[in-house]
Amino acid sequence: MRGVDGLELSAKRAEYLKYIFNQGDVVRTTDISTHFSVAPSTVTKTLEDLARSGFVEHSPYHGVRISRRGREYARFLIRRHRLLALMLSRHGLSPDAACREARSFEWYVNKSVVDSICASLGHPVMSVCGPIEHDTCCCCPADR
Ligand SMILES: [Zn+2]
Ligand SMILES: [Zn+2]
């Protein structure tokens, strides 16, 4: 998957991207600054970085919407989190703890490792904190 392999956003930018992805439409700078409790000027700067890298597109009225590339990456972030949380729960952590602990290290796990974990868990469709997508999963076609 172009643009996903070997590419890593900082945790903060990734959180913004996931938030924008989950809103599903134009997101205003003020929505983000309220949600994350940060100054609008800081949000604007981060959004400019995300736009420059092609993850979001500016839209009128001081907002952004997610780009195709951003959507793919956000889906990867969610899939990675849920696979790692599921893996931890299989090792005895409670669902809450698994979800929380996955957040503390998921940023360091690259896509090929995520794909390996997906395969070793048997391409699961449900995690402790939500469904795991497989339509964008490039580890699965060989198994189908
Ligand atoms: Zn979770
Ligand atoms: Zn898979």
Description:
InterPro entries: DtxR_MntR_Metal-Reg (IPR050536), Fe_dep_repressor (IPR001367), Fe_dep_repressor_sf (IPR036421), HTH_DTXR (IPR022687), Iron_dep_repressor (IPR022689), WH-like_DNA-bd_sf (IPR036388), WH_DNA-bd_sf (IPR036390). Belongs to the DtxR/MntR family. It comes from hydrocarbon metagenome. This is Putative zinc-dependent repressor zntr, dtxr superfamily. This protein has 144 residues and is mainly alpha-helical. It folds into two domains: 61 residues, Orthogonal Bundle (Arc Repressor Mutant, subunit A); 60 residues, Arc Repressor Mutant, subunit A, CATH 1.10.10. It is built from six helices and five strands. The strands form two sheets. The protein has a three-stranded antiparallel sheet. A two-stranded antiparallel sheet has the order 4-5. Strand 2 and strand 3 form a beta hairpin. Helix 4 packs across helix 5. The radius of gyration is 16 Å and the shape is elongated. 26% of the residues are buried. The site of one zinc ion (ZN) has 7 residues, from helix 6.
Radius of gyration: 16 Å
Number of domains: 2
Give me the count of strands. Answer: 5
List cofactors, ions and other ligands: zinc ion
Give the distance, in angstroms, between the N- and C-terminal Cα atoms: 18 Å
CATH class of the largest domain, please? Mainly Alpha
CATH-defined fold name of the largest domain: Arc Repressor Mutant, subunit A
CATH superfamily placement of the largest domain: Winged helix-like DNA-binding domain superfamily/Winged helix DNA-binding domain
Mean pLDDT: 87
Measured as a percent range, the helix fraction is 40-55%
Total number of helices: 6
Shape: elongated
- State which percent range the strand residues make up: 5-15%
- The largest sheet has its strands arranged as 1-3-2
Succession of helices and strands:
HEHHEEHHHEE
Biggest sheet, in brief? Answer: 3 strands, antiparallel
